[in-house]
Amino acid sequence: MALLELRNISKIYHLGGEEIRALDDVSLDIGEGEFISIIGPSGSGKSTLMHIVGCLDTPSKGTVRLDGVEAQNASQTQLAHLRNKKIGFVFQFFNLLPKLNVVQNVELPMIYAGLSAKERRERALKALEAVEMGNRLKNRPSQLSGGQQQRVAIARALVNDPKIILADEPTGNLDTHTGEVILALFRRLSAEGRTVILVTHNPEIAAVTPRRIEIRNGKIADKVDERLAGLDRTKPGSPAPISVA
Amino acid sequence: MNLFNTIAVGLKEIWAHKFRSVLTMLGIILGVASLVGMSAIIKGMENGMKEAMVAMGGVDKVLLQSQPVPPWQDHLADQAPGRTMVDVIALKESAPLIRVVSPEMSLGEAVVSRGEKSTVPSEVVGCWPAVLEMNLHVLEHGRFFTDLDEKSASSVCVIGTGIRDELFGNPEDIGHEIIPLGEQIMIEGQPFTIIGMFQHYMGEEEAKQRLVAKQLKEQQEKEGGPKRQRGWGRRGGWAFWRKNNTVYLPLNTAYLKFRAAGDKDGIVDQRLTDIDLKVADFSRLEEAIQQAKNVLMITHRGIEDFTFQTQENQIESIDKQIKNARLSGGLIAAISLLVGGIGIMNIMLASINERVREIGICKAIGATGPDIFIQILVESIVISVLGALAGLVASELLVSLLANISPTQNTPVITRTAELIALAFSIGVGVVAGLIPAIKAARLSPIQALRYE
Ligand SMILES: Nc1ncnc2c1ncn2[C@@H]1O[C@H](COP(=O)(O)OP(=O)(O)OP(=O)(O)O)[C@@H](O)[C@H]1O
Ligand SMILES: [Mg+2]
Question: φ and ψ at B263, to 5 degrees?
Fold first, then answer.
């Protein structure tokens, strides 16, 4: 049984009588420990898929099964617990709470998990060390660079030791170099045995992951566009896949 | 997420918008201050009224008052005898439920003088020694008049300290006690000898002020500062002032020296100005009054030109006034608390609108609906409780300010009960005001909240 099973997922928006199929009958299995990139043109439904996988959104049709739990049958509170314990979400725009400092931001998921103050502090420090942000504990997000904020956000996603890390264009707002640093972090998480799914527009990043899924018009493409996936090395001008140690 | 954390986060949120939070709290502050202040003022009033009540003779005193004959007896109006000594004697003999009967013959606005100084006492009354018990007088100096004084209609009088202050000077100003026993004063131009003086009556309020003034004076004497001009006569409530400005003379004296001269068509006016009664057993008040009425119906030949007024009526009217004051005060306070609550609700709604994205983030990382609900509710309650605490402080200031600007009034008294009610009310307001915003916030879907611009 796969860690994540999507069966016939559709997400349909109705805008002024017009029907928008953000996802159209998507079925997908993702096993434990996989490292996957999701690619596809803008508006194809990548974020929608991630939100459904991350239990932030519910599909219009179809079933989601996450680590044995049927998401469509779960209550709002159960979904909150799933998001809290099983999923770590990393956003394109970091989404740190501006009024809290770095440690407090990282401690927040553990507050909702009901951990003691002592344990929260210990684990937050460990997670921040892991992303090399252990020296900026008392800073506010606004006092950090984008890359630093994203590292704090990753620490926050990791801190409850989730099985799945979901990242929606985590490097989309960062320069190439910083993007590489962040990507290295995800590779390490994958190497530690976590399931990592990331959405990207960057072929170089897609090339790094063992498995690639392309979404087009709300459907999973049969064959991955090699150019988008950074696999076509013959064409001149397309960059070679980066290698990050 | 435990409560302590939640409160801490709430406080942080409030601290982040200090100015706005204070403005929001203002409604609650005013509400609590007016509730506590109002009830303190009313409590002061109540204390003053009760004190005055006792000063006027206590609850078991019944006034026998004259009234116009009822319409169905109109044709007998000129037969109405009025209240006379006949009534007094009949009541003493035949109404065992009446313990004390005190006849009074007032001289009206009589002028009392000594040399250059003169004054118009609150009452110059001819009476029996029964008046002492009737009006709860305490004779501190000298003696009261005896039956002998009464029989021989001697020209003696007993005065209150207010009269002494006016005619002989105020010990506060002069610096030593003055006891004018044996001195002569003129009452409506006729010489009288002072044979006794009552103690100085004062309310709690005045007692306090005197203490303060004494300390102040000692200080001033050291520094040689100016002396107080006026005495304490009028301070501490009119009931005490009135009691201190009394002149009593024997009833017979009053009758013979003042009434007998002013006859009408050759017949001396026999009527008394007052007959006060005290009942033997307060629990049988109704019965006692009925008994007195039966007796008086005989002496008045069935003409009902009299009525009884009990202090109970007065207590009832005091209670009623207090109740009314409480009601209107409570209403005002409730309205301002309500307005305060609306203010809080308004600001909480605005605040969650500002924080939709934050709430979305919290939900994305695992906050449950109840987590968010409690967070918003606690924030609202924290605002209202802080406001209430500030309001309690404000009410203390308000009350001490009131006490300072008008010390002649009854001191407002802040009661624990009022404070607790105000606090409980504010918490209630906080809960109610926070409810809708909290539900709204808890119901936000994570994805919609995250996408909110
Ligand atoms: N709340 C919404 N209401 C209406 N339509 C929506 C809503 N959210 C998404 N859509 C539509 O669903 C489709 C898929 O959107 P989605 O955000 O998943 O695209 P995406 O693949 O993530 O694009 P990008 O690469 O630009 O982020 C788009 O056509 C979008 O307009
Ligand atoms: Mg997207």
Answer: -80, 165
Give me the phi and psi of B66, to 5 degrees please: -85, 150
How many Cα atoms within 13 Å fall on the side-chain side of residue B153? 9
Sequence spans of domains, chain B: 3-53+317-450, 110-247+254-268
C-beta of residue B95 within 8 angstroms of C-beta of residue B308: no
Q: Where are the beta strands (DSSP E) in A31-168?
A: 35-39, 61-66, 69-70, 87-90, 164-168
pTM: 0.71
Task: Give the Cα separation of B124 and B261 in Å (integer).
Answer: 17
Q: A137-151, B371-385, B396-410: which range is least confident on average?
A: B396-410
DSSP B404-440: HH-TTSPPP---HHHHHHHHHHHHHHHHHHHHHHHHH
What domains appear along chain A, each with residue ranges and CATH number? 32-58+75-220 (3.40.50.300)
What is the distance between the alpha carbons of residues B23 and A228, in angstroms, rounded to a whole number?
56
Query: A89 vs B12: CB contact, 8 Å cut-off?
Result: no
- State chain B's mean pLDDT as an integer: 84
Paired strand residues for A10:
A61
Q: Which residues contact A29 (CB under 8 A, 6 or more apart)?
A: A2, A4, A5, A6
User: Which one, of A162, A160, A187, lies nearest residue A170 by Cα?
Assistant: A187
Distance from CA of B431 to the nearest CA of A (A): 23
CA distance A106 to A120: 9
Q: Evaluate whether A225 touches A214 at the Cβ level (below 8 Å).
A: yes
Say yes or no to pLDDT of B227 above 70: no
Angle, to 10 degrees, between the axis of helix B356-364 and the axis of helix B369-405? 140
Rounded CA-CA distance B362/B372 in Å is: 8
Could you give the C-alpha distances from A125 to A159, B173, B409, in angstroms and in order?
9, 78, 65
Q: Do the Cβ atoms of B362 and A114 come within 8 Å? A: no
Which residues in chain B are closer than 8 Å to A53, comparing Cβ atoms? none
Judged by DSSP in three states, B69 sits in: coil
C-beta of residue B450 within 8 angstroms of C-beta of residue B361: yes
Q: How far is Cα B74 from Cα A29, in angstroms, rounded to an integer?
A: 110
pLDDT at B62 over 50: yes
From A188's Cα to the closest Cα of chain B, the distance in A is 22
Which tokens go with A82?
Answer: 């799933």
Predicted confidence (pLDDT) at residue B217 exceeds the cutoff of 80: no
Q: What pLDDT is attached to residue A28?
A: 92
* Length of chain A counted residue by residue: 245
* B445/A51 Cβ within 8 A: no
- State which residue of chain B sits closest to A97, comparing Cα positions: B358
Torsion of CA B63, B69, B71, B72, to 10 degrees: 110
* CA of residue A115 to ligand 2 center, whole Å: 33
CA A3 to chain centre: 15
What are the structure tokens assigned to B229, written together?
Answer: 């001009």
Secondary structure of residue B280 in the 3-state scheme: coil
Residue B231 has pLDDT above 70, yes or no: no
> Tens digits of per-residue pLDDT, B312-336?
777 788 888 888 888 888 888 888 8
* Closest by CA position to A243, among listed A215, A204, A214, A217: A204
